[in-house]
């Protein structure tokens, strides 16, 4: 019975990832861009003002 529960949970997680892969990739790419800009500007990119502007 325990093995059946694990398979159901594994299947549900797999379906959730498959259905939302576009959203997750968008967040991952945004994070990569933020990291690149942070290294290129020596940390000036991640100031409170810039982050608030990104959220608006």
Question: pLDDT average, as an integer?
Answer: 81
Beta-strand fraction estimate = under 5%
Q: What Rg do the Cα atoms give?
A: 18 Å
Structural class: mainly alpha
- Secondary structure: number of strands: 0
Cα-to-Cα separation, first versus last residue: 49 Å
Could you describe the largest sheet, including whether it forms a barrel?
A: none
- The SSE order reads HHH
Share of helix, binned: over 70%
Envelope shape: elongated
> What are the segments in which pLDDT stays under 50 over at least 5 consecutive residues?
none
Number of helices: 3
Essential attributes:
56 residues; mainly alpha; 82% helix; elongated
How would you describe this structure to a colleague?
This protein has about 55 residues and is mostly helical. It is about 80% helix and about 0% strand. It is built from three helices and no strands. It has helices at about 1-20, 20-40, 50-55. It is elongated. It starts with a helix and ends with a helix.
What would a concise description of this structure say?
This protein is an all-alpha fold and 56 residues long. It is built from three helices and no strands.
Task: Give the topology.
Blueprint: H1 2-19, H2 21-40, H3 48-55
């Amino acid at each position: 019975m325990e093995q059946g529960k694990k398979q159901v949970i594994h299947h549900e997680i797999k379906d959730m990832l498959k259905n939302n892969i576009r959203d997750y990739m968008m967040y991952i790419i945004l994070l990569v861009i933020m990291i690149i800009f942070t290294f290129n500007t020596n940390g000036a990119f991640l100031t409170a003002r810039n982050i608030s502007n990104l959220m608006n």
